[in-house]
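Page 47, continued from p. 46.
Same chain as before, 91 aa.
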Amino acid sequence: MTRTGELGWQNLENGELLDAAEQAGFEVLITCDQNVRYQQNFTGRKLAIVILSTNHWPALRPVATRIASLVDFMQRGQIKSIDVATYPLAA
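Result:
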């Protein structure tokens, strides 16, 4: 996992961030931006997008392994929203 700040991308917004991530060879982008799916056209995108309901670590920690497993099976252009509060702990 790489954070945008580690790459100097913290000021990139939406389309610029998606373009930069694709150009850098990333396959999946994880975000908490609930509106990204409505602000961008994902047709033809190489990235898969996971939209989390929160970035609050205590809420994410119990389901982090499940989220990581989901990421392994994401396909190009796929968008998946995860409500962390209702995401199952076990398969």
